[in-house]
Batch of 3 targets.
Target 1
Amino acid sequence: MSLTLYFHPLASFCWKPLIAAYENGTRFTPVIVDLADEASRAAFLKISPTGKMPALHDDARGRTVLESTIVVEYLAAHYPGPVELVPADVDLALQVRQADRFYDFYVQHPMQKIVGDRLRPKDKVDPFGVEECRAQLRNSYAIVEEQMRAKTWAVGETFTMADCAASPALFYANKVEPFGDGFPAVKRYHDRLLARPSFARVIEEAQPYFKLFPYNDG
């Protein structure tokens, strides 16, 4: 196979390209990266010098693509399938990209800060920073609540890259700052994402690794 995807099944940003690939039945060779393993880390740093996942290597085109959004864009451009993850319509594509950035910056990013704080030594935790992130998540939920009251998918009438981004963002955010009863449209959207076969497959494949996630402050 031409494509090799370097990722970890628990990493939220890796879920986005996995969902995209599964949506379109894109064939690839999976390589699970273990940054705690010296050999695995060293091999991956040759692919991605920053050590950030995911990374996609395309033997056929001699390209290595980094960053989750760019990987999905690359797949959409060079390995398209029946699901148009990035619309051909320019204005609609801009909406998809904007939604993708929203879920990465304003849902995933604060969620990851909360998770990271749980992994710190007890004398290095940042309660103020964590509360700031929780406030950001609640504000983001309110925005999504308003947007999703009369919509099925994040942008337009079909599943797109924006929904690939929303899936891991909302899944993990709900673990650290639960939706509760105040955001019913967010919960309905989250449930639709969970029912999507591509996302259900990603979650199933991550199951053996969920024990590593720091639930309930560890």
Target 2
Amino acid sequence: MDLMLLLKAAVMGVVEGLTEFLPISSTGHLILAGALLGFDDDKAKVFDIAIQTGAILAVIIVYWQKISSTVRALPHSADAQRFALNVFIAFVPAVILGLLFGKAIKANLFTPEVVATSFIIGGFIILWAERRQASAVRIGEVEDMRWQDALKVGLVQCVAMIPGTSRSGATIIGGMLLGMSRKAATDFSFYLAIPTLIGAGAYSLYKDRALLSMADAPMFAVGLVFSFLSAWVCVRWLLKFISTNSFEVFAWYRIVFGLVVLGTSYLGLVSWSA
């Protein structure tokens, strides 16, 4: 057993868990961490997607009461049915566009310029969203969403296919700009992450199964465990954070990180490629 490889897997798991649900792009941070650790070959890229499952398990546990009560109520509750349908509606656009354009995006958009631009523009969009008037909020809780609202959030999520954008950033900030409260947008982003990231992880493992063997099981297990633990801490912290704070700190972080992308690329320290 390669202990150094397991250590790298643990570090990558922590990076995934801490960045997946913050509006700062887990993909960008995994690329940087992988480059610094020398953990960036084709198998590592499959690993990066697969360990999202650990982070999703943390979300399921944090929101278990809501999820379990919704599932139990589905046969007889119109509210539960509407909530489940909204999550499904928001999930569908990413599936369709991902299957149609996923390869083209990886082949053409994973460049330092695109990644850095996405970070920086995303930062300014967050600042803009946080400065809107309170009167713009019309959806206080996820239960207040209509199917049209869910579809719009699902379409906004597709913007995250552009590297450096951030899936959680797109859905949370996009939801806020569409009239959702910060809490409602964050909650729905977490619910939507469950089918989206599980689907992406399963598809990646199936598509690239030829790269993997049973010898990789310990590496993936370590990554999943550390992704779960760090995501559990991060999600619980974020839910408390947004109750009294805005997302502006993440906006400035994105802008600085965008400059880091440009600097590391210019110096040849990181290859920002798919």
Target 3
Amino acid sequence: MKNPMNTLSKSFLLLAAVASLVLNTGCSTTPRAKPANVVDRTSGNSEPTPPGYYRVKRGDTLARIALDNGQSPRDVAQWNNMSNPNQIEVGDLILVKPPAGSKSAVKPAVKPPTNIDTAKTDAPKVDAAKADTPKPEASKEMVAEPGIRLSWPAKGKVTEEFNDKNKGIDIAGKLGDPVTAASDGKVVYAGNSLRGYGNLVIIKHDNTYLTAYAHNRTLLVKEGDAVKKGQKIAEMGDTDATSVKLHFELRVNGKPVNPTPYLQ
């Protein structure tokens, strides 16, 4: 027969142990009643981006950043002292404008139209210093009245016009059809690292105008080559596309514009 005193003692000790555990647990959780502040550093940097710079976003590549700012990927890498252009991180500040003293500027390839109205040739000469002064509405006039004349980069039917989604025009053709430079310039990119463009050539014509030729089967030029208007630079293809075509873009100060008014 069990001793009632022993049973009572054991019950008392068990209750005391449970009470002690509850008190200790309550004391240990008291400081954590308020959640700790957590800073999400993956959501981007809230600091303003300085003029002339671009802040890297998720999914960006150096080639894409350069194209959207009308620059050469090699120049952008050089301006930012990048040993490996493929290693950029979200939030990085990338200089996208030539620094002071840069030699990367491309001389203008724009030539005066040959069909100038003779009545305008008798106009008085303008002082050179005044001629270099930019006009307040120059950018708007430039888009409305093209300052560069482009030749058609390929022969074929335009299957898609310029719009909000299509940043250029699509010209249908046959596999291997010639793709030619729309104007004199310098090849600043030749490769396939821009998603959605396939084998791509980008030509910089001056510090304002840049043209892009996408989905090629074969590239016939390399970065740094000087090209002439009408020179064959690639063969039409369907790389990163659902059909054989040339996707042609014109960028003015890095911004895509409708190239059709510039073509002749």
